[in-house]
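Supplementary Methods S3. Input chains for the assembly prediction are listed below.
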Amino acid sequence: MKKSAHRSQLPINRPIRPLLIVLSGPSGVGKDAVLARMKESGYPLEYIVTLTTRPRRPSERNSIDYHFISADKFQEMIKNNELLEWANVYGNWYGVPKEEVKRALDKGQDTMVKVDIQGAASIKKILPQAIFIFLMPPSMEELRLRLKQRHTESPANLDLRLKTAEAEIKQLYLFDYVVVNRWDKIDLAVSDIRAIITAEKSRVTPRQIAL
Amino acid sequence: MKKSAHRSQLPINRPIRPLLIVLSGPSGVGKDAVLARMKESGYPLEYIVTLTTRPRRPSERNSIDYHFISADKFQEMIKNNELLEWANVYGNWYGVPKEEVKRALDKGQDTMVKVDIQGAASIKKILPQAIFIFLMPPSMEELRLRLKQRHTESPANLDLRLKTAEAEIKQLYLFDYVVVNRWDKIDLAVSDIRAIITAEKSRVTPRQIAL
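Predicted structure tokens for the full assembly:
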């Protein structure tokens, strides 16, 4: 808020457009934890809640962590072109509600969506001017430990996720920025992301998001 | 320092190259004050001391604020191709010593040079991959007040500087970033510049500086 006020007095006619920030990374890297910490930090962003058909985990709240919806409802939304992007990840559907993104950007709010790598790749095709941030594990070994500690995966699933992560890291070139997430220092990742947003808002040539 | 350590463990072969940051802006905008505050903040940057033939002001220290040298020495350095960039600004010569920039970058240090708008334009031609930051006054009216308070200008000089500033602001398109400097809130400008550097160090595709 403070920032936009101090920018609006520039002696030049320079439009400040809202940004769309796409936060992505391999499964287990800590996208949800980083997002939660971003929210807590009070940074003025609109966060888009992802839709999913996967079962709610006990710690999760509906319409805050995800919109938990049925597979039927999900298919209906695909048919009605209501999703900006959708993907099937490990047997469950995930999607980004287009209308919510559009509404946030129309308000002039910087907006963040959290998606997996496939999702980021899809959004890149539609909105190449969004800001693509790849959340990176400190190492594959630490990612393995992290997934193991989560206790939600069978050994076979764990191997699959790690193999997928390796393949996903090869798609890094689709992204604008890479931020390392250490799980004991999430604040470092949050501060890097905030710096990226500040820098992008300082660009002489603003990105043109049209949705 | 901390940053490079945490980046070096990326599970991908991604070279981190030192950045060359070119800080510029119209006369009176507060380039020196922002630079001084950057140094105080302890941010790990190599700062290149500019050469000048103008007389030292009482508050200035030789080889810290500027290298104060004679006009003859300056001409000799031009002849020997020892300057990355040089310009005559309001009757005095200013130049950037090429060897110091090269030495800093060769050490792998992010490096900042402070130049006027002409200087930035010249460096842009040689090193387009440097990061160009335009320090912007909050308004022309505030720039006028600021220059007046400095008591170093005659009224005619003041008008000339303001006219020049207006022309210089039209060269904004040569720059990557614009940062507003309010003189009562220099820390805001410093924190924007730090954010820009952090973001640039997070780019997936690093800038290639070759000098």
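The domain at 18-199 of chain A is CATH 3.40.50.300 (Rossmann fold). Chain A has a mean pLDDT of 89.
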